[in-house]
Every structure is written in structure tokens, then in C-alpha cells.
Amino acid sequence: MRQIAALAVLFVLALPAGAQQEAQAARRTIEAIEALIRERPTDATLYFFLARFRAQLGEKAAAVAALEKVAELGEGFLPP
Question: Which phi-psi region, left, alpha or beta, contains residue 39 (left: φ > 0; alpha: ψ -120 to 50)?
């Protein structure tokens, strides 16, 4: 377990500073979008942007789940 944690730390430290900052910004954006979804759970636009930022972080399953929610809620939805 410690070896995995050490490898994870090394991986994060090996990322360029810009990539780390982009990932942190994406996580903050996801938190903000999820807070808005709690207020507006039927807003397809929020789920679309949630999918976009989940995909940016490489969270494929979560991105697909958010897009499925867009398909469920977004009749006629046209992303910008």
C-alpha cells in the first residue's frame, strides 16, 4: 500500500506544473457544477459541462454517466 502511495506521489510530482494546475482547476469546477446540480437536478447543461470536465480528468465512466443524464434530460439540448 505504501508503495502505491509513493508511486502516486511521484506521478503527481512528475506532472508538469501546468497540468497539475489544470487538474486542480477542473476538480474545483466539478465541485461547483455538482453544487449547482443539487439546486437544479434537471438542468441538462450542467450535466453536459460536468461530463466535459470529468473527461478532462480522464474519468471516462463518470463522463459517460453525465452524458447519459444529458440524453435523459436534454430533449432538444444543443451544447454551445
Answer: alpha
